From TrEMBL:
Coiled coil: none annotated. Gene3D superfamilies: 3.40.50.2300. This is Leucine-binding protein domain-containing protein. Belongs to the leucine-binding protein family. Residues 31-319 form the Leucine-binding protein domain. Keywords: Signal.
Length: 394
């Protein structure tokens, strides 16, 4: 009997130890967030900076214990700026990776990601670009970045306030933002002299010549930061020394100014606030980016990704509950839930409910403090956050 009793005690201790291990595994399970964006070539540098900003915020969160004990990780896939690849990436995230949310997108891919988000009832927290199609009755789409139409209208009003009636616009072929800028400026009487440049070629000779032939003092440069940098280098100081160059908020002025002459004067639209490099958010982002990879340089696009990820984490903190003990019956279900999580058997119904709760949790958040000098939020049922645009001189 004594031997039998010792055996039973040993078995109970083993089961208790196994149970504790499973509980630890359960409470420190991974939260996966998917990101689809174009990371290839010159055009991908802005998106890479944004991605590193997201990873920096997630790494900072994990170092502090994660989201209620759960580690958050980013699954990033390159869609090469292709809507077809973006759609495939989104289905991979939702069908195979069981992500709780998606990030990313672009002018040509955000609408595809929005469609998948609505079909799968999963949050798409857009931020890389916000073309008009993102705001067409999608229940599961929220954007940290303001609508593109608000930005282009603000820019056109800046021209009117400065007494500017004619502006040169250099834009990449098939630019959604140029079409929106044209639509915003026309009612205000601002005429756009447009020059397109190829997105798949390094030959800008024709575009450079056309830009030289236009005498307008104000020039709007649309596109990615590195390509704008190359265009301005081809144009040289004789061109931009006598002009004011305007940049949209999705362009990094530091990258644009690399290797340019001091005579380059930039006016950059910003929605995150003024003097961003002096904010608590930028300092925290820079310090944690150096921990992530000491060879990466901080940037305003990276800061935007960092802020977006922090906002997502706030929403996750409201919906993540590792043990889900909401009623007495949940106590009975807990061992089975732990075993499912421990063995990799995903509880699809529960995760879908969390995905729905995440959309709701974020959509009612107001006055968020993310270390900036402004306190954004989603108000009045809007899909985008209530930022205020400003113009910064660089």
């Amino acid at each position: 009997m004594e031997v039998k009793g010792c055996v039973m005690i040993f078995i109970r201790q083993c089961l208790l130890g196994l149970g504790l291990c499973m509980l630890v595994s359960y409470s420190y399970a991974d939260i996966t967030v998917g990101m689809s964006a174009g990371f290839s070539g010159f055009r991908g540098q802005d998106n890479l900076a944004y991605r590193y900003g997201v990873e920096t915020a997630f790494s900072q969160t994990n170092e502090a214990g994660g989201v209620k004990g759960e580690i958050i990780k980013l699954e990033a896939l390159d869609d090469e700026f292709s809507s077809d690849l973006a759609g495939q990436n989104a289905l991979r995230f939702t069908n195979r990776k069981n992500v709780l949310a998606m990030l990313g997108g672009g002018e040509n891919t955000s609408d595809v990601l929005s469609n998948v988000a609505d079909q799968k009832e999963i949050l798409f927290l857009g931020g890389v670009s916000t073309p008009p199609k993102m705001f067409q009755n999608y229940d599961n789409v929220l954007t940290v970045r303001p609508p593109m139409s608000e930005e282009t209208t603000y820019m056109c009003r800046q021209f009117v306030d400065r007494g500017v009636s004619k502006v040169t616009v250099a834009y990449p072929e098939y630019s959604v933002m140029y079409a929106e800028l044209k639509r915003s400026c026309a009612p205000l009487g601002v005429v756009l002299d447009a020059v397109s440049y190829p997105i798949s070629s390094m030959s800008y000779s024709k575009s450079v010549q056309q830009l030289f032939e236009l005498a307008n003092e104000n020039v709007v440069m649309l596109g990615d930061s590195k390509t704008i940098n190359l265009l301005l280098a081809r144009l040289g100081g004789d061109f931009y020394g006598a002009k004011t160059v305007w940049l949209a908020s999705d362009v990094d002025p530091d990258l644009v100014k690399q290797n340019q002459l001091d005579t380059l004067e930039l006016k950059v639209l910003s929605f995150l606030g003024s003097q961003l490099k002096q904010t608590q958010a930028y300092k925290a982002y820079s310090e944690n980016l150096a921990k992530l990879n000491p060879y990466l340089m901080p940037s305003l696009r990276g800061l935007e990704g960092y802020v977006t990820a922090l906002i997502l984490v706030r929403g996750l903190e409201d919906v993540i509950n590792p043990f889900d003990l909401k009623s007495p019956s949940d106590v009975i279900k807990l061992p089975l839930n732990v075993m499912r999580r421990f063995t990799g058997w995903v509880q699809e119904g529960k995760d879908i409910e969390q995905q729905r709760q995440l959309v709701i949790a974020l959509s009612v958040m107001e006055n968020l403090n993310v270390g900036l000098r402004t306190y954004p939020g989603f108000v009045d049922g809007n899909q985008s956050m209530n930022w205020t645009f400003s113009v910064e001189d660089y």
